[in-house]
Amino acid sequence: MNLQENVNDVIQKTPVLDMHTHLFPSAFHQLCLTGIDELLTYHYLVSEAFLWLDMEYASFFERPKTEQAEIVWNTLFVQRSPISEASQGILTVLQELGIPFSRDLNDIRSRFAAFDHNDYPEYLMKVANISSIVMTNNPFDAAERKYWDSHTTFSRETFLPALRVDPLISHWTEAAITLRNDGFPVSDTVNDQTIETAKQYIRSWVETMNPVYIAASLPWDFPKSNVESALLERCVLAVCQDYNLPLSLMIGTKRGLNPDLQMGGDSTGQFNFEYLENICMQHPNQKFLITMLSRENQYELTVLAQKFRNVMVFGCWWYLNTPQFMEEITQMRMSQLGIRFIPQHSDCRVMEQLIYKWKHFKDVFSGLLYKHYEALETKGIPVSRSDIENDVYAMFQTNFRHFITKK
Ligand code: RAT
Ligand code: ZN
User: Sorted alphabetically, which InterPro entries does this protein's record hold (predicted)?
Assistant: First the structure.
């Protein structure tokens, strides 16, 4: 094999630890999403379909999922060519699963129905070569919560919990109701006593879930108040420190810009770095996993990650998960950080998406990595297969695993 073939081959054969998804094990029943109707009603595709649709938003969302899927299919796959990244993703999934494209959605549905067996999620992980999936576990979500309350068992080697605390930081008054209902007597005013009690609440979920990190997404204009920063720093970060857990920050959302689009209505804004620089500096022993949504923030983030070894930058998040931005951002990170970052996470919500999100990323990554090794060889430094394996394994597995276990 020549260098390019070796790089491609290693990238294909190295199993990936996917460090941020919205996937669940099949033991979480209806939360483990699979199939073409779920794929078509992915919020990225729903927002795109609405660019062409005349119907009221509400009239779409009140229909059954099968009808929503048909609307998206007709709008984006039948009436015009599927060009966007999310629609190309559907085509990649079909291709990789050996399902021929047909404009009749029922043909595709019947091919998916044939896959409907118990170990289908594991089969999909095998196709995508994923060893482990980090979930997003939100104790404020009633649908999810019942599985934790009933001590649902699942393979903790395959599905790694991550405790997500957005509501506690960004919607305190609503979160406080949940805490009180759960027997944690907090007040609406965030005073010292309430901070202590909220910490106990988070600790109780750390004990239940045993997460690999605690995570929050932060809006572009965070913190809007001292209350928000107190909840993040004195409460969430303090618990991370008690348990030596990394804090994963996904920064730069503008939630609900178009609320009628429901989950697809969120947008992005540029974040002011000073706040983040301060917390990284003030907490040198706290590990931070960080990704950002704004393209304009990527350069500063890369520089920040080069200044602080307690920071591990990860992924090309959400709207940045396209070939163009993956290439730009990954190249920038390699130039500043070498291989000391986590190049991608999938953010999948539907199991089959693992196939396309990782295939599309690996296509870009393989080209980039090859160019770097080629540069070494032109400088007289031979690159062996095991060098490539070592680097790719670090980026797909150990950069994350070592970071989360580090003291
Ligand atoms: O990428 C997404 O699917 C978004 O809707 C968000 O879930 C985001 O990834 C998040 O974790 O907040
Ligand atoms: Zn996500």
Answer: Metal_Hydrolase (IPR032466)
pLDDT mean across residues, the chain: 98
ipTM above 0.85, yes or no: yes
**DSSP 8-class letter at 322:** S
- Residue 117's pLDDT is 82
pLDDT (average), residues 177-191? 98
Q: Could you tell me the pLDDT band of residue 307, with boundaries at 50, 70 and 90?
A: very high
319 lines ligand 1 (CB under 6 A): no
Quote the CA–CA distance of 153 and 109 in Å, as a whole number.
Answer: 30
Proximal ligand: closest to the CA of 44: 1
Interval 198-209 mean pLDDT: 98
Q: Which two tokens stand for residue 289?
A: 């996993």
| Atom 1 in ligand 1: residue holding the nearest Cα | 318
| Ligand 1 near 291 CB (within 6 A) | no
In CATH, which of 2.60.40, 3.30.470, 3.20.20, 3.30.43 is domain 30-123+138-154+162-340? 3.20.20
Question: Is residue 116's pLDDT more than 80?
Answer: no
318 ligand 1 Cβ < 6 A: yes
Q: In this model, does residue 364 exceed pLDDT 90?
A: yes
Helix (H) or strand (E) holding 253: strand 247-254
CB of 172 within 8 A of CB of 240? no
pLDDT higher than 90, residue 388: yes
With vertex at residue 251, the alpha carbon angle to CA 217 and CA 174, rounded to the nearest 5 degrees, is 30
**pLDDT average, residue stretch 254-281:** 97
Helix ranges, 308-352 (H):
323-337
CB of 347 shorter than 6 A to ligand 1: yes
Neighbours of ion ligand 2 (CB under 5 A): 347
Kindly give the distance from the C-alpha atom of residue 20 to the centroid of ligand 2, in angstroms, as a whole number: 6
In this structure, what token pair is assigned to residue 323? Answer: 């070939």
- How many angstroms does the Cα of residue 379 sit away from the middle of ligand 2? 41
Cα diameter, the chain: 66
CA separation for the pair 109, 113 (Å, rounded): 6
